[in-house]
């Protein structure tokens, strides 16, 4: 103890301030903002992915399909391909309705798989099963399957997600998919436009696998982030080769092919459920992130629910996207069903950021 007293007597006031104020403050700041620091420095340790080869997208309602196919460098078929739309479903009842209504005229079979477990192993109700009456319009074309969760605590959420995608492959076979049928692979909230799917089912010599570049929205169609959503894809099915996946599978991507509306929910409780349930639940670093009042405030501000910096690969892009997303007041070129039923889905349209509390 005497040695410690001697050491302390030799320390001046500035050193005390450094040791007992500045150092703890720095440690606390790193604890709170460490993820932001990591994301901001991302360009130093990770290179951007290889650029896609963008295919220009031509469309006008008054232009013939033969002309549209020719503009893309493709031929036109004598009859259209069959189209299968396959999704893993969690709890997105509203956005699924918008999706299926948008695609309905050109879909041969809707294929939906639901689990009683989230990717993170949290038990969940069979939301689609209990709301199936809302989808009577699709019932004649619906292949519905369910799968039991494994509920393994501490397991990487992407393992459960991969297991469910394998089960979806099997459900597609049961639904009757065959070679050269079109298969849409995308999350529920990644919605290809109707005319995009019609183009791909009528045109010959389209790529075997083609990603779709979608406009990227957050919370509603009021907050346009960018046009860089790319995970949605369309495949010409090949027996024994095509596997349902949600990662990059080709370098070719069709421009302006639809909409990705992430976290586009009606109820605050749905936002909180997804924050805890989806594969990136580790982003909920503090319990107050799940506070309903905070969630509502963040939605109306167009800010980030997880208080994160943009996931970009250059400092210019990171700095350019920092802060809330600017409000958009355009509802042009959105899914037609959404506008036809604007009263029911006003929470998805500009100027309606307030959510229901249930």
Structure characterization notes:
One of its GO terms (molecular function) is beta-1,4-mannosylglycoprotein 4-beta-N-acetylglucosaminyltransferase activity. The chain crosses the membrane at residues 16-34. It comes from Hibiscus syriacus. This is Phototropic-responsive NPH3 family protein. The chain is α/β, with parallel strands linked by helices. It contains 12 helices and 14 strands. The strands form 3 sheets. An 8-stranded mixed sheet has the order 1-13-9-12-6-3-4-5, sandwiched between helices. It has a 4-stranded mixed sheet with strand order 7-14-10-11. It has a two-stranded antiparallel sheet with strand order 2-8. The chain has 3 domains: 1-46, no CATH class; 53-262, Alpha-Beta Complex (Spore Coat Polysaccharide Biosynthesis Protein SpsA, Chain A), CATH 3.90.550; 268-348, no CATH class.
Q: Spans with pLDDT under 50 lasting ≥5 residues?
A: 28-33
Helical element count? 12
How would you characterize the largest beta sheet?
8 strands, mixed
The CATH topology of the largest domain turns out to be: Spore Coat Polysaccharide Biosynthesis Protein SpsA, Chain A
Helix content: 25-40%
Radius of gyration: 24 Å
Keywords summarizing the entry:
12 helices, 358 residues, 4-stranded mixed β-sheet, 3 domains, Glyco_trans_17, membrane, 8-stranded mixed β-sheet, globular, 14 strands, Phototropic-responsive NPH3 family protein, transmembrane, Spore Coat Polysaccharide Biosynthesis Protein SpsA, Chain A, beta-1,4-mannosylglycoprotein 4-beta-N-acetylglucosaminyltransferase activity
